[in-house]
């Protein structure tokens, strides 16, 4: 008996315009088909080739044999009383990630995940404590935008849209899943995709410098740096990848990226304020000095506590003191207001559910049971 090999169908949902054009060329079809199909998927939300009335029946039959349009499945959706919406999205058996939509005056931002968990283990981040399983595919990443836009009944790029901004700040380090993230961001910004302006799509990285050095070859999206400390000694404790790529290397690379863009833009510096860890006056003064030559604005994020963390939220006094020091030094400073905390959707709280290949979660849980200090971050008086 011979076992027939079944070739898996290609998922067209995650194909960038270039890859879609190559795909149609590979099956002997004209390149304009790529744009037609992308519009059906991303503008009209089609998941079935039979909906595509301007595509001939013979091509639709051919596509059904070799391709599919399969978004990841929504397991659960929560709606916060403040309008924040969170989805738990299945990306395989026992593997779930989260995406969050945050409405604000005049805009709506979707926070998108790039990996199932995260390998980097930043001290203040719930995702990091859950461990890591795998990278998301491009279809699973752009699928989060597809799901969100569709849930509001709005995919068409023109007109009054709900999802106006996307930040790659959900679960995972986007530059550790470089090509899938770049393809997804290209679909977000393509006129045949979601048509979101390059000034409204932001990639946030904790500092994977070699990939940041390549990013300018693939995209001109905005850049945010998860900095969280003004010196290497403290950042090594909060963001472990800093031991490999210290602050100077990271900021130099970020500056090269931003000054290489065709228009003038600032880097967003993300700084999570943790009580008596990185929220003191001298930290603010050191940060102001560090960023002196960097075209940037600073976004302060009060730490959001989560299970498996013994770090604490900054006090309001320390938060405003920190802001004022930066402000007086000439920086544009914003404070991220906590949104969606009734549905655990606030920044740093995304956890998902998945099998942790690193067994990191187990180790943190064991420490918590033994009532050991979970996160060995030195506190300053
Ligand atoms: S902050 Fe980002 S890079 Fe760090 S552990 Fe969390 S998801 Fe990973």
TrEMBL record:
One of its GO terms (molecular function) is tRNA binding. Binds 1 [4Fe-4S] cluster. The cluster is coordinated with 3 cysteines and an exchangeable S-adenosyl-L-methionine. [4Fe-4S] cluster binds at residues 118, 122, 125. S-adenosyl-L-methionine binds at residues 172-173, 204, 226-228, 304. It holds the Pfam family RlmN_N. Keywords: 4Fe-4S, Cytoplasm, Disulfide bond, Iron, Iron-sulfur, Metal-binding, Methyltransferase, rRNA processing, S-adenosyl-L-methionine, Transferase, tRNA processing. CDD domains: Radical_SAM (cd01335). Gene3D superfamilies: 1.10.150.530, Aldolase class I. One of its GO terms (cellular component) is cytoplasm. Residues 104-336 form the Radical SAM core domain. Its EC number is 2.1.1.192. It catalyses: adenosine(37) in tRNA + 2 reduced [2Fe-2S]-[ferredoxin] + 2 S-adenosyl-L-methionine = 2-methyladenosine(37) in tRNA + 5'-deoxyadenosine + L-methionine + 2 oxidized [2Fe-2S]-[ferredoxin] + S-adenosyl-L-homocysteine; adenosine(2503) in 23S rRNA + 2 reduced [2Fe-2S]-[ferredoxin] + 2 S-adenosyl-L-methionine = 2-methyladenosine(2503) in 23S rRNA + 5'-deoxyadenosine + L-methionine + 2 oxidized [2Fe-2S]-[ferredoxin] + S-adenosyl-L-homocysteine. Its cofactor is [4Fe-4S] cluster. Reaction proceeds by a ping-pong mechanism involving intermediate methylation of a conserved cysteine residue. Belongs to the radical SAM superfamily. RlmN family. This is Dual-specificity RNA methyltransferase RlmN. It comes from Umboniibacter marinipuniceus. The gene is rlmN.
